[in-house]
Write a structure and sequence with these properties.
- It is a single chain.
- The chain is an alpha+beta fold.
- It has a domain of 66 residues: wza like domain (wza like fold).
- 28% of the residues lie in helices and 20% in strands.
- It has two helices and five strands.
- The longest helix has 20 residues.
- It is extended.
- The N terminus is likely disordered.
Amino acid sequence: MTPCCSRIAGLPGTRRPWALFLVLACLVALGPAAAAQEYTIRAGDVLKITVWGHDDLSKEYPVDDDGFVPFPLVGRLRASGLSTKSFAARLTEALEKDYLVNPQVMVSVREYFFNPAPRPRQDTGG
């Protein structure tokens, strides 16, 4: 016979009600954190773009200094300031507008560009 505290809502065989609470608490807590941690594309990054079924379009593309990615068929698209998911949606929309039927596009960052702000020059007093 199991103690009454090991059952949830009277369901037989359900043990450790705190485990269910812990799992639910983690899901709630991690949901917003994952969205807040999404990377924003910047000039200088290199994107790996895959268009399923189109090996000629699937390769690495640099984000130029103006924040645009030159892409075959559609020209330059702004990528800087967008998440990879948002840029994939923008590219999908541009490709299906006049070129492909239901394109499946995946974008990931192959190389991250890191450019720290320049440090102020030290006055030598001379």
